[in-house]
Amino acid sequence: MTIPELNDVHPAWLPPEAFRAVGSRRTLVAGDGTLAETVRAEVAHACARYGGEPVASGAAHDLALTLSPDGDLGDEDFVLGRRDGVTTVRAGGQAGLLYGFFEVVRLGEAAFAADRAAVRHRPATRRRMLDHWDNIDVHPVMGQVERGYAGGSIFWRDGVAHDDLTRVRAYGRLLAASGVNAVAVNNVNVHATEARLLTDRLGEVAAIAAELRPYGIRVHLSVNFASPVALGGLPTADPLDAGVREWWARTTERVYATIPDFGGYVVKADSEGQPGPFAYGRSHADGANLLADALAPHGGVVHWRAFVYDHRQDWRDRSTDRARAAYDHFAPLDGRFRDNAILQVKYGPMDFQVREPVSPVIAAMPATRLAVEFQVTQEYTGQQRHVCYLGPLWSEVLGFRPWGEAGPAVADVAVRGGVVAVSNVGDDPYWTGHPLAQANLYAFGRLAWAPGLEPGAVLDEWIGLTFAGCADPERLRRTLREMMDGSWRTYERYTAPLGVGFMVRPGHHYGPDVDGYEYTPWGTYHFADRDGVGVDRTRSSGTGFTGQYPEPWSEVYESLDDCPDELLLFFHHVPYGHVLGDGTTVVQHIYDTHFAGAEEAARTRLLWEKLAGDGLVAPDLYARVRERLDEQVRSAGEWRDQLNTYFLRKSGVPDAHGRPIH
Ligand code: GCW
C-alpha cells in the first residue's frame, strides 16, 4: 500500500502539513487487514516527513490506534480519548481505525494537548455515498461528465478508464477523511457504452474498486434497466419474466466473482428517457425488487431513484404538477420494496433548486428504506463559478422535521437508507473547478456522517486542514467564513425569488432566463403575469400538492399567512402587492434581494482581494478563485438586471428606492 502522491494536483483537505501533528509523534497501530495496513502506511508516510516514528507494541508511544473488535463498537465506530500523555483510538473494526486516524489528523495538535474524555464516534448512517454522473464516452450534449464543472472524469477519458488511477486512490483518501464510504462510478443516464460496464467492461470497474478499497470505499454501478435486452439479447426486460430474473442473477454473480465487495446498483428508470418497468405495465417496486433479488445473495443493495416525472408535460395544462410526481408514483408502493432496495429521493420535490421544500416522499414511506439525495455538483447553484457553500442548505434539510417539532428529522428517516450526493469532482487541478467548492465535497461527507454538525464548524475544519501551516490562520479563517457562511443565501437572493426556482437558461442551466422554461414540456413554471407570480399548489384552489405533507406542514404550506416567505411562490400564486412578513411587498422584495445579492457578491470579491499579495494562500489558488469571483460578480449583476427588469415590466410597479432598473 503506497500513499498516493500527485504532482500538479491540489491536495485539497489533505496537504502534507495537515499530518504534521501525527507525523511528529510516536504511533502504535495494532490490528490486521487491508484498512489497518492503510493506517500503518499513512502513519509511516507522515512520520517520514515530520520525524516521528511508527512503533511496535510494547514501545513507548504518544498515539495508539487499536483494533478491538469485541465489545459494543460497530465496524466503523471508534472511541477517541487522551490520558497520561497518550492519545488513544479504539476501533470496532478496520474502518473505525481508518476514521479514527483521520479524526486525529483533523484535530491536529489539539489531539495531543490536554487530556480528553473518551468519546465514542459513530456514523449516523451506514452508507454515505457519492454518485458520479461520469460518462465513458464523451456525450455529444452532456460531455464527459453530465453536469460536471471541474473538467473531465477522474475515472474515464475518451471511451476508456484512465490507465493511471493514482488520482482515484487520492480521491478515495480524501473521501475517507470526510466520511464517505461508497461511490457510483458512472452516470445514472446509462448510455450504450456505459451499460457494458456491467458485463464485458467489468474489468475497468474492478480496477477502480481496487484503488478505492484501501480507503474503505465500495464501488457501485449505475445500470440500465433494459440491459437484458441490450446486453443479454433477450426479447424483454420485464421484471416478472423468469428469463430476465435469471439473466440479472447470473450477471450479478459474475460481478461479485470479479469484485467481491461490490456495493450494488443505482437505477434511474422511467425518467427523462431512461427505460423502466412502466414499459411492461409493472410497478417500480417490481423493478427495484428484480435487482434487489439478484443482489441479495451477495449482500448488495440497489439504489432505486424516485426522480420519476413526466418531462413531456403540456404547459397549457394547469392540473399537472411535477412537484407531485415522486409521491404520486412511490407513496402507494410503501412496504412493497425488498429490504435491500433503497429508494433514493431528491431532497426537494422538483430538482436540486437553491430553495425547495423538503420532498413529501420522505415522510410518506415509513415501511421503505429511504436515502436522501443531494447535489454537490452545483448545477443550479452557480456551477462552481459562484461561491455557494451548501452546508447550510443540507443541514437545514437534514434537520427538517416533517411531522413537526416533536417528530423525527429527515436525518432520522435517512438512517436506514443513507445519504447520497452527486459529486462535484473532475480531473481539474483543484478537483472541483472552484477551489472553494472543495468545501462542499468535504461538508457533504461530514454531514452524512454527523448530520447535527454545525455547517460553520465544518467549514472551520475544512479551512484548518486545507490551509494547514498558513502564516495567519485566524485571519484566513475569518475571511473565508465571511465569504462562505452566507454564500448560499446570497446566491438565492440574486437568482430565483421566494422558492419559485428554474429561472435559468434551458439546457445548460447557467445564468438567468426568467421565461426560459415557462412554455416548455419540463413542468417547471412560475406563472408570472401582469398581476402576480407563483405556483398555486394548495388543495383549495391549486394542484393539491400541499396535501402530500403530513400535519403540521400540510396546513402551514396551505395557508397564505403561515407559509414561510422563502417558500411562498413555491406554494402560492400571489399578487405583486402581497405583503411579506418583513412588511415589504413581493415585487419590492424581488428588487431589494436582487440589488442586495449582487452587492454581496461584489463584497465577497473584495474580501478575497484583501488577501492578495500577503502570501496566506498560494498565488495560483488565489488567482483561480479571483477569476471565478469576477465571473460571479458579472453573473450576479446580470441576474439582478434581468430579474428586476422582467418584474418591473410585468408588474409596472416601480422600485420604492428608485434604483436603476432597465
Ligand atoms: O437535474 C437533472 C439534471 C440531469 C440529471 C437529472 C437526474 C443525470 O439536469 O442532467 O440527469 O437531474 O437527476 O437524473
Supply the key terms.
binds 4-O-methyl-beta-D-glucopyranuronic acid, globular, 662 residues, eight-stranded parallel β-barrel, alpha/beta, six-stranded mixed beta sheet
Structure commentary:
The protein is an alpha/beta fold. Helices cover about 35% and strands about 15% of the residues. The chain contains 21 helices and 20 strands. The strands form 5 sheets. Strands 7-12-13-14-15-16-17-18 form an 8-stranded parallel barrel. A 6-stranded mixed β-sheet has the order 2-1-3-5-4-6. Helix 14 packs across helix 15. It is globular. The termini are far apart. The model has no long low-confidence stretch (mean pLDDT about 95). 4-O-methyl-beta-D-glucopyranuronic acid binds near residues 147, 352 and 379.
Parts with pLDDT < 50 across at least 5 consecutive residues? none
Number of strands: 20
Helix content: 25-40%
Globally, the shape reads: globular
Q: What does the largest sheet look like? A: 8 strands, parallel, barrel
Terminal CA distance reads 62 Å
Distinct small molecules: 4-O-methyl-beta-D-glucopyranuronic acid
User: How does the helix and strand content classify structurally?
Assistant: alpha/beta
Strand content: 5-15%
Spatial strand sequence of the major β-sheet: 7-12-13-14-15-16-17-18
Q: In DSSP terms, counting alpha (H) and pi (I) runs of 4 or more, how many helices?
A: 21
Q: Compute the gyration radius: what is it?
A: 25 Å
